[in-house]
Amino acid sequence: MDGFDLREAVQTLLKFREERDWNQFHTPKNLAVSVCIEAAELLEHFQWRKDEEIDKYLKSDALDKVKEEIADVAAYLMMLSHDLGIDLNSAMLEKIEKNAVKYPLDKCKGRHNKYNNL
Predict the structure, then answer these.
(1) What's the half-sphere exposure (Cβ side, CA atoms, 13 Å) at 117?
(2) Residues 114 and 95 grouped into a single domain
(3) Judgement on whether residues 16 and 45 belong to the same structural domain of the protein
(4) The CATH number of the domain where 60 resides is what?
(5) Cβ distance 66 to 74 under 8 Å?
């Protein structure tokens, strides 16, 4: 994804939070809890649905609701990362490198096993 850059979104989000004086509520613990809550709300859209039902569901206006939940999860992650001084982009790239070692292509391609069961 060339040009993928969330800096503008992060700055806008931080300004939004600052204007409302919500920093006082956004402790690392509260932000981490909020990530989980929003992720659960995202999961509710898929709960109990079969794959065929999900395909149909996502072709409806429900996709907008799913998009909002994804944005909520991302927003809390971005704030948490910012507040902890973590460059989210670098952290993700570093994690991918670690996973490449744990999941070598020749052992895991097409398999869903955890690294200790390859």
Answers:
(1) 4
(2) yes
(3) yes
(4) 1.10.287.1080
(5) no
Phi, psi of 34 (to 5 degrees): -65, -35
The domain tally of the chain equals 2
Q: Which domain holds residue 46?
A: 1-86
At 5-40, the pLDDT tens digits run 788 999 999 999 999 999 999 999 999 999 999 999
**Based on the domain organization, do 64 and 112 belong to the same domain?**
no
Q: Tens digits of per-residue pLDDT, 57-96?
A: 999 999 999 999 999 999 999 999 999 999 999 999 999 9
Nearest Cα to Cα of residue 41 among 16, 6, 76, 92: 76
34-64 pLDDT, tens digit per residue, is 999 999 999 999 999 999 999 999 999 999 9
User: d(Cα 34, Cα 15) in Å, to the nearest integer?
Assistant: 19
